[in-house]
């Protein structure tokens, strides 16, 4: 079974794995595809398994990435996802090989990706990338790490941007920063807002609409980051039910 190269010419009719089969995310998937088309003009590449499954990789030149990192002449992986029955069949390695081949063909020095210090939802497994030859070269609180595969010893080492601090001015309530990169993030924000309003909690959302906004945001993980009273809490894209339980737990801690 091979892989399909998704381009601006075939992205509209093709599924892109994210939110596969979830009717409530149809508009969010549409917005993701619009986002992808614009990024494809800047070098974004997307491969998925030739099957209706969540097996894909998405990457682009790090200078064009919507994250606060400094990695000139590296390729940045937005997302590598292999799930379900397709795990442990070599797809992760095969997709990483495609990324490496493209990066080397462009004369790049390596590949960079944000992983979790431990296994966490929506973040790649650090141990897998280390197994694939990546090295952890930088850290950002509370649990983000920068993994690098470098084949040019003379190249500069990637790092998180100096602006990264994961904090906001202390204010009341929940603040969410997100982009259109992930349909789950786009699709759930308004549902979370409804839950917060029902609980009497102030809720603000900040959609990052340009690379410059993303790179200057207080969030390390710009796909989706949630703050509470100015402090980063999680990058986990919670369901409304999970979010409600989380808010109730906060009330219990502060009461």
Structure in words:
It is a single chain. This protein is α+β, with helices and mostly antiparallel strands and 255 residues long. The chain has six helices and 14 strands. Strands 1, 2, 3, 5, 6, 7, 8 and 9 form an eight-stranded mixed beta sheet that branches. The chain has a four-stranded mixed beta sheet with strand order 12-11-13-14, covered by helices on one side. The protein has a two-stranded antiparallel ribbon with strand order 4-10. The longest helix has 16 residues.
Helices and strands in order:
Layout: E1 3-6, H1 26-40, E2 45-49, E3 55-61, E4 69-70, E5 74-82, H2 91-105, E6 110-116, E7 124-125, H3 126-131, E8 135-140, E9 144-150, E10 159-160, E11 174-178, H4 183-198, E12 203-207, H5 211-216, E13 224-228, E14 231-234, H6 240-254
Parallel strand pairs: 5-6, 6-7, 11-12
Antiparallel strand pairs: 1-2, 2-3, 3-5, 4-10, 6-9, 8-9, 11-13, 13-14
Helix pairs in contact: 1-4, 4-6
Helix-strand topology string: EHEEEEHEEHEEEEHEHEEH
Number of strands: 14
- The percent of residues in helical segments reads 25-40%
Low-confidence stretches: none
Strand content: 25-35%
Q: What is the straight-line distance between the termini?
A: 56 Å
**Average of pLDDT:** 93
Please tell me how large the radius of gyration is.
18 Å
Largest sheet, described in full?
8 strands, mixed
Tell the overall outline: globular
Structural class, from secondary structure content?
alpha+beta
Number of helices: 6
């Amino acid at each position: 079974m091979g892989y399909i190269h998704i381009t601006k010419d075939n992205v509209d009719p093709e599924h892109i794995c994210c939110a596969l089969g979830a009717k409530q995310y149809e508009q969010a998937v549409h917005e993701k595809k619009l986002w992808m088309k614009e990024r494809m003009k800047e070098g974004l590449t997307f491969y998925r398994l030739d099957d209706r499954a969540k097996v894909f990789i998405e990457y682009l030149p790090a200078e064009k990435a919507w994250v606060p990192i400094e990695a000139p002449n590296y390729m940045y992986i937005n997302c590598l996802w292999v799930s379900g029955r397709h795990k442990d069949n070599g797809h992760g390695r095969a997709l990483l090989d495609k990324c490496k081949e493209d990066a080397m063909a462009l004369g790049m020095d390596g590949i960079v990706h944000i992983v979790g210090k431990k296994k966490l939802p929506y973040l790649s497994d650090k141990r897998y990338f280390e197994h694939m030859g990546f090295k952890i070269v930088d850290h950002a609180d509370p649990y983000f790490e920068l993994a690098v595969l470098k084949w040019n010893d003379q190249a500069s080492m990637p790092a998180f941007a100096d602006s990264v601090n994961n904090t906001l001015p202390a204010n009341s309530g929940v603040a969410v920063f997100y982009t259109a990169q992930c349909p789950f993030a786009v699709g759930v924000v308004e549902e979370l807002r409804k839950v917060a309003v029902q609980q009497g909690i102030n809720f603000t959302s900040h959609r990052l609409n340009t690379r410059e906004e993303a790179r200057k945001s207080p969030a390390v993980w710009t796909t989706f980051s949630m703050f509470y009273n100015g402090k980063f809490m999680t990058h986990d894209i919670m369901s409304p039910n999970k979010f409600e339980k989380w808010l109730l737990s906060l009330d219990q801690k502060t009461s």
